[in-house]
Amino acid sequence: MSDVPQPRVTIALCTYNGAQHLEAQLTSYLAQTYTAWDLWISDDGSSDRTRALLEAFAKAHSHQHAIRIVTGPQKGVAANFLSLLCHPEFPEAPCALSDQDDVWLPEKLALGMAALPSNHPCLYGAQSVQTNAALVPLARGPQRGHKRPMSPSFANALVQNIVSGHSAMLNAPALALVRAAGVPPDIPYHDWWLYQLVTGAGGRIIVRAQEVLLYRQHSQNTMGVNQGVRARLRRAAQLFGATYGAWLAANTAALRHVERLLTPEAQITLKAMELAPKQIFALKRLSTLRHHGIQRHSRLGTAALWMSVLLGRC
User: Fold this and answer.
1) Per-residue model confidence as pLDDT tens digits over 273-297
2) pTM of the predicted model as reported, rounded to 2 decimal places
3) For residue 38, what are the β-bridge partners?
4) CA dist 89 to 15, 107, 289, Å?
């Protein structure tokens, strides 16, 4: 009896002037133990050799994998990824998001496909090995004990993202949900939007501890390493400045436009999130968020959020 063929998964790669590191990422696809993949690329108007590298890769490997290159909307990274997922001809199958400058470890797709259920919207994420530009792993700082167990939830998703886009995978029902929502304008991060949308619709979030890729740190990173003193200072500046509040406002406005896709419980939580900044008294704003479980995953992060609320920053 012949083996049952593997379900196909579509790699969704977004590029923009990524020629310096792109070949290593493309080569890592070829090394995947899960071989039933196809590749869709949205290039966002590259002016370097990116497009030529992509076309050469497609020519060399299209006999084994369906490879298609489309032109992105040139409105930023989030719009590039979401417009690709919402392309009318994008396969209605599991998909794996990919940055242009990482290197996938061989088991990445296999681990994700084994974890994803098939019949209920699910967003999967895993961990990465942070490296320098030459792919040398960076020294890891001491693990801090301030994190507490908390399940992924829509209330958390409203104020924090916990699923890294470069490791994210969607099953077919989750992809259908993304396509039903369309491409919202002005949201800050596509991966945060995916976390909000899937939890808001009652879907499942899986975040595994396995390291599945090399996360290259270099001067052109859209989002850099999320650890260390510099990263904590950057997050503090965002929380207590205008940036974070603007992000929350953009996300809640986008969610309001797709409210029909959210569960009744999520609609109530979203309404509370919208109501809180309009309340005159800071303690009342804080009470509203706490009542609906709107908080971050760490004690320190939640304390910073509360302080930001009390100061009227969000």
Assistant:
1) 998 777 666 788 888 888 888 988 8
2) 0.90
3) 10
4) 19, 28, 40
